[in-house]
Amino acid sequence: MSNPNSLYARIGGEEGVIRLVQAYIQALKTLPEVQNLRNIYPKDLSKYESRMVEYLSTWLGGPALYQARHGLPMLRETHRHFPIDSEARDEWMLCMRTALEQTIDDADFRLYLEGAFWRMADSLITK
After folding, report:
1. Is the pLDDT of residue 2 over 80?
2. Domain map (residue ranges) of the chain
């Protein structure tokens, strides 16, 4: 059971994480200004979608789903094969900001999460 004060609980638990990830995937598929990022991903996003739910569940303070299924979530190692530059980061953040706006009503909480996601995305720049 997760901490009732965790980000995971505040986002709405499993249902909230799934909504956020689905909104992110929808933005990735439909926003024309993120096509460079979209081209980095495989055509079928289902594996990525489920792993993102697992990772974010743990990252937000909920169940350690990613660890239970895949081991330690070494984010930089997992992404080292992808050409992540500031443009890819910015496109990822556009998708995530869009998803946050669609799924998080509390403006202060949304801004807090946006900052946390920005730091995460920024740490993955490889070139």
Report:
1. no
2. 7-123
Question: pTM here?
Answer: 0.89
Task: State the distance between the two ends of the chain, measured CA to CA, in whole angstroms.
Answer: 39
Please name the residue that has the structure tokens 């995530």: 96
Query: pLDDT at position 125, please?
Result: 85
Q: Among 95, 89, 96, 91, which residue's Cα sits nearest to residue 121? A: 89
Predicted confidence (pLDDT) at residue 90 exceeds the cutoff of 80: yes
- CATH 1.10.490.10 applies to domain 7-123: yes
- Provide the residue type at 38 as one letter: R
Contacts 24+ apart (CB under 8 A), 6-11: 6/60, 6/61, 6/62, 7/60, 7/61, 7/113, 7/116, 8/57, 8/60, 8/61, 8/62, 9/61, 9/62, 10/106, 10/109, 11/60, 11/103, 11/104, 11/113
Q: 1: closest CA among 13, 19, 16, 10?
A: 13
Find out whether 75 and 120 touch, Cβ atoms under 8 Å: yes
